[in-house]
Description:
The chain has 330 residues and is mainly alpha-helical. The protein folds into two domains: 2-96 and 210-312, Serine Threonine Protein Phosphatase 5, Tetratricopeptide repeat (Alpha Horseshoe), CATH 1.25.40; 113-201, no CATH class. 38% of the residues lie in helices and 6% in strands. The chain is built from twelve helices and six strands. The chain has helices at 10-27, 43-57, 67-80, 82-85, 142-147, 152-157, 213-227, 232-244, 256-270, 280-286, 290-295, 319-324, and strands spanning 107-111, 158-159, 161-163, 169-171, 181-182, 208-212. Strands 1-6 form a two-stranded antiparallel ribbon. The protein has a two-stranded antiparallel sheet with strand order 2-5. It has a two-stranded antiparallel ribbon with strand order 3-4. A hairpin with a 5-residue loop joins β3 (161-163) and β4. α1 runs antiparallel to α2, α2 runs antiparallel to α3 (67-80) and α7 (213-227) packs antiparallel against α8. It is globular and about 60 Å long. The relative contact order is 0.13.
Amino acid sequence: MPEDIVPSAPEEVYALITDDLKKAETMLPDAWTDHREDIGFTSGAAKSLLAYVYLTMAGYPVNDVSNYALAAAKARKVIDNEALYGYRLLENFSDLWIWESRFNDETVFGLFYNLDFRNNQRAPFGQMPTEYGGWDVYFAEINFFNDFPGGPRKEATFATQFFLESGEVLDWTETLQRRPYYKKYWDIPGFDWEKPWEYVDWKSERTNVVLRYANVLLTYAEAQAMSEGPDQSAYDAVNRVRNRAGLENLTPGLSATAFRDSVVLERSWEHAGGEFAASPWYDLVRLERVEEAAADRHPWEQPIFTPPDKADYFAPYPDRDVLVNPNLTR
């Protein structure tokens, strides 16, 4: 009976996830030879995601720090075999987001859309401003944008000036929402960067990036630091990502927790705006920093009338399920 079903403990849920990924890493090929070369369902992708799951399990709500060592070991297997899996960091961060590069060697796992089959489509309008006919679904938080280090990664991540048909150029502070926008998925056929107001189609075949090789490197760096200390291999991993972004090497001699916090910050910059598995949200939850992040708001942001707490860390059960089974309390 439905009323006999009680919620599973987080450890039980994660056990199912890790069990599936362990099977996937042995059952999937290292690469595909009879499919298009950009397919991401490989053993390397399973290992990469498993490493990130272990990292998540080291924090809230499981809080089993032994998973740091598991995460480091699994990510290291991917890094040591990056040539086997065909993974690499692209030389230029901006190249990740141009249309011609929607299938690239840095994408460990992606959702590849094909409009010929009428499946789900990446909708650039979701992250475009009203001034371009966009939907204003999401945009950058102002304090996050202000704290984001300058350089090629910031330039490729944010749209801050908006060219209008009238010839007027709006700074982000002059737009309706007064926010910088994420422009990672704007570049699709039919979109003209010099005449953005002419774009009228909401559909595209843009790849939804679920996991990139950059996050494998950052996962290893953090997990290694928290399990064995921030050794040279941990520094090498995070510095590969930082150097590509135009940043200097991370400060040497950091404590494990200071190194971890630096890597977490790096991940928030590297994967800002529309990447799934590496969303900074998961770092906020596992490190129990949701409340702190929500309180860090620029005066222009809409106020939060009910500040979040632990009850808001995870999505509630659907009303329909709660009505069928009262054990699923909201």
